[in-house]
Amino acid sequence: MILPTWLLLLSGTALADYYNPPISDGYGNWSAAYEKARHFVCQLTLTEKVNFTTGVGTGQTVGYSNSIIPRIGFRGLAGDDGPTGVRGADYTSALASGMNLAMTWDRQLIYEQNYINGAEHKAKGANSVAAPVVGPLGHAPAGGRNFEGFSPDPYLSGIAFGEAVRGTQDAGAIAEGKHYLLYEQEHFREIVEWNVWLAEEPNITDPYSSNVDDRTLHELYLWPWYDGVKNHMGAVMCSYNQANNTHACESDRLLNQLLKGELGFQGYVSSDDGSQFSGVASALGGMDVTGPGETSPNGISGLGESYWGPNLTLAVLNGSVPEWRLDDMVTRVMASYYYLGQDKDYPELNFASGNFDTYGYEYPEAELGWRKINLHLDVRDNHAETIRKVGSNSAVLLKNSKNTLPLKKPKQIAVIGEDAGPNKYGPNGCSDRACNEGTMAMGWGSGSTNFPYLVDPLSAIQQRALKDRTVVQYVLDNWAKDQIGDVSWQAEVCLTFVSAISGEGYLEVDNNFGDRNNLTAWKDGDAVVKQVAANCSETVVVIHAPGPILMEEWIDLPNVTAVIFAGLPGQESGNGLVDVLYGDVNPSGKLPWSVGRKREDYGTDVLYKANGPVPQLDFSEGLFIDYRYVDKNNIKPRFEFGFGLSYTTFDYHGLRINAVPAVPTASISPSQAMRTTNPSICPHTSLNPSDYTFPTRCTPTRGGDPKLWDVVYRVRTTVTNTGSVAGQEVAQLYLDLGNGTPPRQLRGFQKVMIQPGEHKEVEFELRRRDVSIWDVVKQQWVEVTKLGTDIKVFVGSSSRDVKLRGVIPATGKAPSMISSMVPSSSSRMSSVVPSSRFKVTPTPTH
Length: 846
Ligand SMILES: *[C@@H]1O[C@H](CO)[C@@H](O)[C@H](O)[C@H]1NC(C)=O
Ligand SMILES: *[C@@H]1O[C@H](CO)[C@@H](O)[C@H](O)[C@H]1NC(C)=O
Ligand SMILES: *[C@@H]1O[C@H](CO)[C@@H](O)[C@H](O)[C@H]1NC(C)=O
Ligand SMILES: *[C@@H]1O[C@H](CO)[C@@H](O)[C@H](O)[C@H]1NC(C)=O
Ligand SMILES: *[C@@H]1O[C@H](CO)[C@@H](O)[C@H](O)[C@H]1NC(C)=O
Ligand SMILES: *[C@@H]1O[C@H](CO)[C@@H](O)[C@H](O)[C@H]1NC(C)=O
Ligand SMILES: *[C@@H]1O[C@H](CO)[C@@H](O)[C@H](O)[C@H]1NC(C)=O
Ligand SMILES: *[C@@H]1O[C@H](CO)[C@@H](O)[C@H](O)[C@H]1NC(C)=O
Ligand SMILES: *[C@@H]1O[C@H](CO)[C@@H](O)[C@H](O)[C@H]1NC(C)=O
Description:
TIM Barrel; 846 residues; binds 2-acetamido-2-deoxy-beta-D-glucopyranose; Rossmann fold; five-stranded parallel beta sheet; beta-glucosidase activity; signal; six-stranded mixed beta sheet; globular; Immunoglobulin-like
């Protein structure tokens, strides 16, 4: 998996070339929270502490909720799903998917939508939000839950994840990042789900294991989690799958060593429903709370059996689990609670997930605690505006010939395809949105929410078209060939809608067990487009899908003059789309993955047929997923990663690369940093933790070694709007780090609004981690320039539309000279232009 060349390079490197983690700010602003948490924990009895860690799976919400401790007047915590809003609630918003947020490439919008999510959870009284999602990362394009996350690119995902955590928590709710880690497909994720609920063959005896080498783990799948931890993420949900044949929720390597040790995670780890497989092992492995509390796979057996609960009390009493570990578990939860200030005026839980009755049981399964459970508070505020903005700013314009878009008062429009109209069962008519009926604006599963309304494209288009006295005809039945033929023949512009959908593995749609079976449009979508295009010289295709779809059957047809990938935009779907179709918003979305010409172009896929009773997913492609694979193998994608058109055009000039002078920092050895001893949490329960390798709460760094976040280079360029309308450009920076890394890796992006004829300076900050690779021997990040590598720099408007190239020379080479300035034509994937050097201009750090 790892190319031998890089190991060779390494062996010749002196130890001094590696930087060591310095002593940092301790747990920073968490100190006060930890102090309060410790005070809280130390007044609890053993059974109260155990109770605290063991969720009440049969409670009012879906997520980790614990019980009230009346003795000390603590009313308990409640968490709820998920990434698109408050799951199962009423009078809440239905947000755009995580994938759409990534499609915006807009840090502010990612932050804003997650702020809304946090605010709505808080107003409904939920302490934590099971979101944002960065697992799956997107190993395979057909992966069922990819749309809940952001992008298979770790840098884009990391930035988005960090902003999402910040947004959620600034609103006051705890962000519970999920799913940790290597949860990359739905097939075989859960035994009972697969063997009994779905009753699919062959039977499995354990969830699948994702087997990934250490370097790939760090540079790809673990990468975004650093950003979440850096931004103070309060909780993490561990996943269903195994890693190297150890369950994620009891993996000492994943939880203790990596998450809490290396990354310095300060909050708590919760299980998913049914992802806990042991009592003692999960406690020692680093899990802090059992989400549903119960042993049964969905946590709602009502039997009350638990790996923890009374079992954990026994395990502490018989010495299998040290009491300080139990204290640590509770302390971590309460630290997040205090860190977010939830001890002050946090609203009480005032809804019941999936139940709209005003009165009901607090514990429905046990039929206990009859009370007013639902205040039906409307918490939507003006959030629709942001959702609409995410919709319009995420739409990716893939093709626009013959000046088709924006629409210019067309005399007659045809709207064609089931995906243009409403679901005949209503927007919430399919359980957890598991169907493909009407327009697709949300994927299915626990990441879904109830739509307060859903503006379908047809209604929005009709509304808008009325202003221009445009005639609008439509056909929503994909098989109504005669009617489709008629209306497309008459119309000036034919807006043709196709869709695909996917979701979570516990539900199946048209034989798709969460993961998509194929990458094509559903419901004969390709045939619909081809038929419309045969009779309509301006066929605009709009795609609603949870990831890339193959479009080879029609993309090159001359009458298919425009194509928009709209993703899964949530409740304001039609409005956001109309903004772009009519040019009220100039499209600025860019693809967060590649669009292949065929399925094989991706090099990776879902494992659909079990290769044993415990299916093994060997990620032997290492770092090479999505565009990294495509680039490495010189495959010509249909549309490359980062691609997206605008109604205007942009020019780049002047690439300037400056090294940022290093700030000297005291350092200690990595092992010292990781092995700080665990101070006793409560005086009476302190035990010797020496056999517990990473007593993490005390790890002195948050987000990993602080030096990883130092800005080491600044890259600047100037972008000019050369067209006639204002527009936003996403300027992108890619690096070739050599040493067995992909030919190009995204390491910077900036979205800027530029008026016609004007130009803007764009600056990318390269942090030390961005120019480093993971050294598996030293268990450290190392800057490739210190390995003798010249870093190649590419700046442009996509991963292939490179406008400017430069070089950051290896350490020791021409110390006072750095970089180059070589504007190139927008030649795609041409070889590296020889560089001319210029003097470095040092910039101060701040
Ligand atoms: C602590 O919080 C303050 C504001 O709340 C912030 O300005 C400061 O940077 C934080 N310090 C650390 C170490 O995170
Ligand atoms: C533990 O929680 C249950 C409810 O989930 C409650 O009935 C019981 O009293 C609690 N035990 C203690 C010791 O607080
Ligand atoms: C698969 O597992 C289910 C549930 O345990 C069982 O009912 C079924 O008989 C099994 N099928 C086979 C072929 O073993
Ligand atoms: C899995 O095994 C590989 C190969 O031994 C190793 O590099 C990697 O660190 C392991 N991952 C985990 C999570 O233990
Ligand atoms: C203890 O755990 C076992 C599974 O290991 C379970 O069968 C049992 O019901 C648990 N006991 C309680 C009281 O929950
Ligand atoms: C301690 O109790 C736990 C929970 O019942 C059990 O799983 C474990 O095997 C026990 N350990 C010993 C050494 O008895
Ligand atoms: C094109 O339109 C004409 C007139 O309505 C119709 O007869 C014909 O079948 C249509 N062609 C297709 C391919 O739908
Ligand atoms: C792809 O899957 C969808 C949904 O199951 C189905 O409608 C469609 O016919 C499939 N496409 C192909 C080419 O098999
Ligand atoms: C394009 O559409 C026109 C109708 O406007 C039709 O006459 C022509 O045959 C179509 N071209 C193709 C290649 O289908």
